[in-house]
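Final report, closing paragraph on structural work. Over the funding period we assembled a curated collection of sequence-structure pairs, and we close with a single example.
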Amino acid sequence: MTDEPAAPASRTAGSQTLARGLSVLKMIAASQQGMVIQDVADQLGVHRTIAYRILNTLSDSALIHRGDDNRYRGASGLLTLAGAAHSAMRAAALPVLTELADQLQQTVSLLVREGSDAVALAVVEPRNLTYRISFSEGSRHPLNRGAAGHAISSCSAPTEHDSEPVREARAKGYSLTYGEVEPNMFGLAAPIQGEAWGSAACVNLITTRQELAESAIPAIIEAAARIASRLA
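Its predicted structure, as stored:
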C-alpha cells in the first residue's frame, strides 16, 4: 500500500471543516465500491491534500478504513452511529405504529436499509386481536423484492438503473406488491422521507387481503409522514 506524503497542518477550522468531513462520510457510506482520494477531492471541489487530511481524520476515528486497493470504505465506528440513529428512529416510530396497528387491525412494521437488505427494526401487532400475521424483528429480505424494499430504495436519488417498481414507489409515495417476499401475501409500504436520521426506511404492512392493502394506502402514507416529522 502506497502512503500519501505527509500533509501540512490544517489552516481550516470551524464549521467548514466539519461540513466537509460530514459530506465525505456520507459519500463514502453511500458508495458501494469505496472511494479513492481523488474521487473525494473531485466531489468536494478541493485540493487533494485537503481531501487526504479529512480522510485521515475520519480514519483515525474508525469511521472509515483504507483497503489494500487504496479505496476508502465505511469502518466499524459507523456501527455505533447507525445503532444510535436506529434507536432514535425506533423510539419515534413506535407510538405511530401502535396507533396504526390498532386502526387497521393489522400487524405493521418499520423497516430500514442495511446494506442490500431491508431489515425489520420494529414490528407492532394490534391489541385485542386473536388472529394476526406476524414476523420477527431483525428479519430481512433483499431490497430488490417486496414493497418495503422498493419503498426504501425510492428514498435514494433517481438513477438510470432504478427498477420500474422503485420508480413507481418514488412517484406515488408508496409501493404495493403481491407475493414478492411471501407467497400469497400483499405488501404495502411507504418511504419515510428525510435525511435527519441518515438511514432509508419505510412503514410496512403485509396482508392476505387485497382490498385491505389498497384501502390502507392513505393511512400508511400518513404514518410515514408522521414518523418523519417526529425525527426532523
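The first strand starts at residue 64 and ends at 66. The helical segments are 15-30, 37-44, 48-60, 77-104, 146-153, 164-172, 210-215, 217-231. We thank the funder for supporting this effort.
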